[in-house]
Write a sequence for this structure.
């Protein structure tokens, strides 16, 4: 009996760390243009991203943005402390995608768990945004420049949305994309750095 107990305890000691290291469920993130999550997942930044490098698809937080949802300064991480490195502006050093105002830009989501969806919304920082500061509601134009309604439908595994970028911006800005889930209290958050 003691021998079986020891074998069972040894097996649990091996399996438990492996099981807890795996994500409970995968979801989705913007892959192109590369979001902060995608950059971390690809090891494309010179700093430690923490656990998000293993789970770029898992930035899930409370829905209702901008009236509810993640607190200011925690928006890029969906208010989840595990992904806090996404909120660190690194002095404005996040890699950017070059864009121009009025340009058509396609956002590509890689979705690993297809949820019933309310909509996708895309917000942009205001003119004069300081890329060395965390994202807050005060730093964003809270009127999305693109809203894509889904009315409960599930998005495809690869989902694209094309938007016309607002004009009147120069320098480093951030697009905050919010994928709102219809049948849970959560949404997925993705921040993409762009250079006008």
């Amino acid at each position: 009996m003691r021998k079986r107990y020891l074998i069972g305890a040894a097996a649990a000691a091996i399996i438990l760390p492996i099981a807890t290291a795996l994500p409970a469920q995968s979801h989705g993130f913007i892959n192109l243009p590369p979001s902060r999550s995608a950059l971390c997942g690809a090891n494309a930044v010179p700093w430690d991203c923490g656990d998000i490098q293993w789970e770029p698809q898992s930035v899930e937080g409370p829905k209702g943005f901008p009236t509810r949802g993640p607190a200011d300064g925690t928006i890029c991480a969906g208010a989840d402390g595990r992904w806090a490195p996404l909120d660190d502006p690194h002095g404005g050093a996040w890699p950017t995608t070059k864009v121009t105002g009025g340009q058509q830009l396609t956002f590509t989501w890689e979705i690993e768990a297809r949820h019933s969806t309310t909509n996708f919304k895309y917000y942009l920082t205001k003119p004069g945004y300081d890329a060395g500061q965390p994202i807050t509601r005060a730093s964003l134009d809270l009127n999305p420049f693109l809203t894509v309604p889904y009315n409960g439908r599930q998005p495809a595994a690869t989902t694209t949305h094309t938007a016309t970028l607002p004009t009147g911006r120069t320098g480093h800005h951030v697009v905050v994309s919010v994928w709102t889930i219809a049948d849970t209290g959560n949404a997925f958050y993705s921040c993409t750095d762009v250079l006008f």
User: Anything to note?
Assistant: The chain has two helices and nine strands. The longest helix spans residues 2-21.
